[in-house]
Specification:
The chain has about 300 residues and is of the alpha/beta class. It has two domains: about 1-115 and about 240-305, FAD/NAD(P)-binding domain, CATH 3.50.50.60; about 130-235, FAD/NAD(P)-binding domain. The chain is about 25% helix and about 25% strand. It contains six helices and 17 strands. Strands 1, 2, 3, 4, 5, 6 and 17 form a seven-stranded mixed beta sheet that branches. A five-stranded parallel beta sheet has the order 8-15-9-10-11. The protein has a three-stranded antiparallel beta sheet with strand order 12-13-14, with no helix packed on it.
């Protein structure tokens, strides 16, 4: 099977690229190993999406998916393991469990995944009190005590979401100040269900079958303390999913893919967009711009081959 364009990743960057490319009558395929929308689909509310006072990530993902499909974009639910450029300048894309496909061009927009924090017991208790998605798991903690680790936008937004279910939410952050938007910080600081534990990190979690206690270390004094908790939600940043292309493209100092203003990598015909590229801001709005730019650049690239 051969395509004009294969887009790897069905998040906001990939879906937008699919809309633009399909409207340009390019034979386009989006490959997504998870749910269409990526991390966007796991967001409770998008308060900063232009033109909408508030829209859920799930709703926006569905609208973008339907729009791309309506223009003729195809979708495939699979995991990409490698991408290589052939002797004829086409790309060969290999999957974990499906036959390879060929594409004249590729937009790599595989997004990112939550990072592990690295405290003792973290991996052992995943699914047993450790979570990386409040929207997915908050309902399991109704009227229970939970903790949120992190101080960025995601951490504080998820802490606010958890207050709809949990009886108490402790926000643990290694600094005094937060990196989140000021308006989100104010909401967190004033919420009656939220307690702030600052200048602190999680040393370990413990329990019998599920998480029951958190050992906390003050980074200034080294003092250890312990609190009871039924769950810990970890939001300490995201790692770009670049494994299939890391030996093919040039990487920036931050470990993400280096692109120019046209979303071109160092490999002709291979473009990148969204969370996998090196840039200042990783937001849905910027990912959408990346996807639109990449798809337009692909159209120009393919025209130059004719």
């Amino acid at each position: 099977m051969s395509y004009d364009l294969v887009i790897i990743g069905g998040g906001p960057a990939g879906l937008t690229a699919g809309i633009y490319a399909s409207r340009a009558l390019l034979k386009t395929l989006i490959i997504e190993k998870g749910t269409a929308g990526g991390l966007m689909a796991l967001t409770d509310k998008l308060d900063n999406w232009p033109g909408a006072l508030s829209i859920s990530g799930t709703e926006l993902s569905e609208k973008m998916y339907d729009q791309a499909k309506g223009f003729g974009c195809e979708f495939k639910n699979e995991e990409v393991v490698s991408i290589a450029k052939r002797f004829d300048d086409n790309f060969i894309i290999d999957f974990k469990e499906a036959d390879s496909i060929v594409a004249k061009s590729v937009i790599y927009a595989a997004g990112s995944i939550p990072k592990f924090a690295g405290f003792e017991g973290e991996k052992e208790y995943v699914g047993k009190g450790i979570s990386y998605c409040a929207l997915c798991d908050a309902a399991f903690y109704r009227d229970l005590k939970v903790a949120v680790l992190g101080g960025g936008d995601s951490a504080l937004k998820e802490a606010l979401y958890l207050t709809k279910f949990a009886s108490e939410v402790a926000v643990i952050h290694r600094r005094q100040g937060f990196r989140a938007e000021k308006i989100i910080q104010e909401q967190v600081r004033s919420h009656p269900k939220i307690t702030l534990i600052l200048d602190s990190i999680i040393e370990k979690v413990s329990g019998t079958q599920f998480v029951e206690k958190i050992t906390i270390k003050n980074v200034n004094t080294g003092k250890l303390s312990e609190i009871s908790a039924d769950g810990v939600f970890v939001f300490v940043g995201y790692a770009p999913q670049i494994e299939p292309v890391k030996n093919l493209v040039t990487l920036a100092k931050d470990g993400r893919i280096e692109v120019n203003s046209r979303m071109e990598t160092n490999v002709p015909g291979l473009f990148a967009a969204g969370d996998v590229i090196s840039k200042l801001v990783n937001q849905v709005a910027t990912a959408v711009g990346d996807g639109a730019t990449a798809a337009t650049a692909v159209e120009h690239y393919l025209s130059s081959l004719r």
